[in-house]
Amino acid sequence: MKTTVVGGYPKVLLDQKLRKAYHATDDGKMTAPELAAVQDDVTAAAIHEMDEAGLDVVNDGLIRWDDEITHIAGKLHGIKIGGLIRFFDTNTFHRRPKATAAVEWAEPIVAGDFMFATGATAKPVKAVVTGAYSIAKASDYEGVYASFGHLALDIAAALNDELKSLVAAGANYIHINDPFILLDPSYFPVFAECIHVMLDGIDAHTSLYTYFGDATPLYDKMLALPVDALGFDFTYSPGIIDKLTDCSCTKEVGAGVFDARNTKPEDENVILATLARLAKAVGGDRIWVSPTASLEYLPLGKCRDKLREMVRIVGAFKGVQK
Amino acid sequence: MRPLPALLPTTTVGSFPKPPELLKARTQFGRGKISRDDLSALERKATEFWIRTQEELGIDLLVDGEQYRGDMVTFFAEQTEGCIISDLVRSYGNRYYKKPIVVGDLVRTAPYTVGWWKYAQSLTDRPIAGMLTGPYTMMDWSFNEHYPSRGDTALAFARLVRQEVEDLLKAGAKYVQVDEPAISARVDELDLAIQAMHVVTDGVLSEAEFCTHICYGTFEKIYPKMLDLPVHRIDLEMSNSGLRLLDKMRQTPFTKKLGLGVVDVHSHVLESVAEVVSRIEDALTVIPPERVYVDPDCGLKTRTVDEAVAKMKVIAAGAARVREKLAKSASRT
């Protein structure tokens, strides 16, 4: 049983150094290279905190990401970034991408971030990308593509190039966040095709995470996807534990059991019972325990508390198992 | 009190940017370098600036500009027993707010806004809208460590908002806005949001014009059900979303007054008067002009002072131009 994270880390580390740097950049008082240096500092600090908390596998905290959509979409050829739109049922927003031409991969997007992260920790580092389906679902395609599906598949092909660049940079763990399929499961065939296209020829451990919706109705179909691990938000998918324990699960399981949307501490006994059920059904060595989603929804102090508690409770569970 | 024009009254959604000296003073106050009285004096000065500015620009239904608030949820939570304020949580880009945590039974220990409303109203003969954050949004934008469910939390907030509404009405407010920007985020909870609004407005709808502001969500998924909200006017962010909701309104009539957002508050780009006119005229193909209020998509606090003034100026000019066209058209017939 390993511990890991799903998405971003609060960016207000180091006394809001990055926030101040963005203000300074907006005011013309900081250059792009100076801002990049601050982003590096804060990224290193986020990784250090995940490291210190005792996580088994970390990511780079997505410190450079404005949101889950535009960091990837905005660097693809053929996409421009438009107005604000709410991200799921959160009080956070992303800007809406708009296809302006056929979408193509132009250059590595997160490979440089991944390489920086590997240099900042001795722990294994996951490379994180947002899935093509979610990027397409969050975008306007009218006027360029005949359908949403056509845009999604072009983005998937572009992200396949991105994932190849990540593997070439040494990424052994590829983590895909693709929550939008939970909004309308009827699009699963397009979603599945996107995953196949994205992961074609990718030689790495791959995981697919969804959150902010109930994945239970899609669970059986998800088992056929070409990924090593499926990650679930247990707070939005209360029935997923029954699926995972009642049916034969052929995948590793990402158990998002620590609520990244609420400060309330988890009940240790409930977590231990959930982990026990999962371990019995799936095998303890095939479980990745994590927060439900990005940690950016929590204040920094509460984020730290959650990670420490997560590592402590998983440690306690392993101790009992021994 | 000066009445609103019969057609296309202009208004704004609530917040205005704080002048640089007030921003600096808020930082100094946070560091204990100036007193509460010093800060309040600047907040009152800034409030008067925005009242005068709205008057000069010809805005009809005024707001106090929220110069004394940090964030629309935190402001109320920090005055509420049962809430504590956590550290910063990001909203978008480089914008953060201090998200409240509900840790006990919620109690309003004193009016939240009535003193500011009275002060603002004393400065002008134009009506000032009372400006509150709605119970569903208070719940959704807070962490809850106390109540057993989201519904219980929302209804607990609703009882506090109701108390504030009653005090605003006693003070003489004839327009009350209850902002619910979170309402379009979870379609499955729209009934809860409506139930909470009933707690706020039942029995007092005849005493004032009630409005709710909703923005940045999937309007198409909550329409027409959102018309069940017990208010007279629904104010919507329409220009950022390309007036897409008008198509839905053609299929199912919009039965309330509409607050029509005609400028994007999250863009530095200033709309032209012609663009504003075009957006108003598009809306008038669906809703008659006596039921349309013209305003920005949302609060203008994310703009600079100059940008906010410029955006209001095109709103006022656009509404005036359409009113003139309507008058000419009426005189010809």
Largest sheet of chain A: 7 strands, parallel
For the termini of chain A, the CA-CA separation is: 12 Å
The strand order across the widest sheet of chain A is 1-9-8-7-6-5-4
Mean pLDDT of chain A: 95
Structural class of chain B: alpha/beta
The CATH architecture of chain A comes to Alpha-Beta Barrel
**Roughly what fraction of the amino acids of chain A lie in strands?**
15-25%
Q: Sketch the topology of chain B as an H/E string, one letter per element.
A: HHHEEHEHEHEHEHEHEHEH
Query: What proportion of the residues of chain B form beta strands (DSSP E)?
Result: 15-25%
- As residue ranges, the low-confidence spans of chain A are none
The secondary structure category of chain A is: alpha/beta
Shape of chain A: globular
Tell me the Rg of chain A in angstroms.
19 Å
Multimer state: heterodimer
Helicity of chain A, as a percent range = 40-55%
Mean pLDDT of chain B: 95
Q: Fraction of residues of chain B in helices? A: 40-55%
Description:
The complex is a heterodimer of chains A (322) and B (333). Chain A has helices at residues 13-26, 32-53, 70-73, 111-118, 132-137, 148-168, 188-199, 219-222, 240-246, 268-282, 300-321; strands at 2-3, 77-86, 93-104, 126-130, 173-177, 205-209, 229-233, 252-258, 287-291. Chain A is an alpha/beta fold and 322 residues long. Chain A has a single domain, classed as TIM Barrel (Alpha-Beta Barrel). A seven-stranded parallel β-sheet of chain A has the order 1-9-8-7-6-5-4. Chain A has a two-stranded antiparallel sheet with strand order 2-3. In chain A, α7 (188-199) links the parallel β5 and β6 (205-209). The mean pLDDT of chain A is 95. Chain B is α/β, with parallel strands linked by helices and 333 residues long. Chain B has one domain (20-63, 112-137, 149-332): TIM Barrel (Alpha-Beta Barrel), CATH 3.20.20. In chain B, 41% of the residues lie in helices and 17% in strands. Chain B is built from eleven helices and nine strands. In chain B, the strands form two sheets. In chain B, strands 3-5-6-7-8-9 form a six-stranded parallel β-sheet. The radius of gyration of chain B is 19 Å and the shape is globular. The mean pLDDT of chain B is 95. The A-B interface holds A 10-12, 16, 19, 22-23, 26, 66-67, 83-86, 88-94, 262-264, 296-302 and B 86-94, 96, 99, 101, 140-141, 143-145, 182, 184-186, 216-218, 240-241, 264, 266-267.
